[in-house]
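Listing S7. Sequence submitted for prediction.
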Amino acid sequence: MKRTVRVLTAAILCLTLLSIVVTGCTSGTTKEEGKELVVAIGTDVSTFDPHFTTDSATEVINKNLYNNLVRFNQEMELIPDLATNWELDPDDGVTWTFELRQGVKFHDGTDFNAEAVKACLERVVDKDTGSPRRSVLEMIESVEAVDEYTVKIVTGYPCGSFLRQLAHPVAAMISPTAIEKYGKDLARNPVGTGPLKLVEWSSGEKIVMEGNADYYDGAPKVDKVVFRIVPEDATRAMLIESGQADVAMRLPITELERLRSNQDLTFIETPTLMTMYVALNNQKGALADPRVRQAMNYAVDKELIIKDIVGDLAILADAPISPATWGHAEIGAYPYDPEKAKTLLEEAGYGDGLELELWTPVGRYLMDQQVSVNLQAQLAEVGIDMKIRQWEFQALMSEVKKGEFDMVLLGWSPSTGDADQGLFPVFESSQWPPGSNRAHYKNEQVDQWLKQAKVEVVPEERLALYQKIQQTVVDEAAWLFLYYPKQVVVCRSNVQGVEVLPTEHILLGQVKK
């Protein structure tokens, strides 16, 4: 059967999405348009080049600068973006034809067309480019500009997750003129088609954007958006409470509980695709022994962390990927059993104790510092002396790529909403640092299943493979599995139209103030 999305369907979906977006932050008194919107965030960006972005904190920013061929709505359904409709050739199962939106221009005035799509996708899949997210689109074999607004993409094999892969931030459309002009300097010179355009980046302080008056979905209702980079949780809370910020992200539960009584604020609470975990270096010292990794999972009471630290803004992790991700399997969480943890450590030869170091970001994840301290205390109860080393998030991500750590607290959010992206980058052995397999996990059978799942198109067969992969990864305790966090975005009551996706992306193209 041909898979075709017609223009009428696209229009209905966009109208439905608009009705959802407008209610995202309920309004107080609507003020005149043309205002400055201030967003308080906890971490800086790593790069404005989406083809080189490896963290969702940066994607949050970049998603407002760029568009893809297709995108997700708040229910993680695929809807048109720069492509208006598409179809898969039913005979060969690998040829996709996309019709493109006409009249769209990049921020530098370059026309968006089939040649631009070809340039962007070929840039990502070209090994010489060195994109750390090349694996997301590596199935692409060729891209042909059939005419100005028609693109034909051929994949090297039938791929059940292909459309979702195209919604990933790495498939963002960048001006081909900018690619030619800036090369690697795109990291500081973003040129997309999105609703916002970069004006200024003061690293560690603020990111200033202005509205794109020519945006295909209508010019933004605010003239300027300022992302203020504020690592301190209490300071972000103070900014939103005092009105110095219009939107605040990742506030701790203690601040949220206090702010909920404030009539001038509204709250958007949504699930996420993210799994919070501790990457255990499976190739280093004591952590190379699966019994030690299993012991650590038994030693930690994750439900206590969820209840007492993150304030029930999380769900206990029963698998490496969240229930919001297609392909999730209910494997089951490690129960809290410190005595079993001690037994396993004794069997592994560490009955007299063990010293490890945990790297943790500051301000990137909800209550990340407090979670790290709690992990330290719980592991101490079974004889593991864990030292904590705190990092600014982007500095941490840069250092993590070297792979020289014992343990690191991180979140993994597959921006495709699919188990392929949820599992392949973090557990396939070719993806060791500087890739995203930060645990240095290696299992040849899992590698084989992951590759097999990539080329499988029958959903039931894909699910069966992902079930086996997740069971094996949990049994071998590749990670210290924690929880699936929820996200809460706080808005001033005069702010409308903030769109919050389970991917953690916060879209501001329809914001009114």
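Caption to Listing S7: primary sequence and predicted structure tokens for the chain studied. The mean pLDDT is 92. Residues 7-11+45-191 form a domain with the Dipeptide-binding Protein; domain 1 fold (CATH 3.90.76.10).
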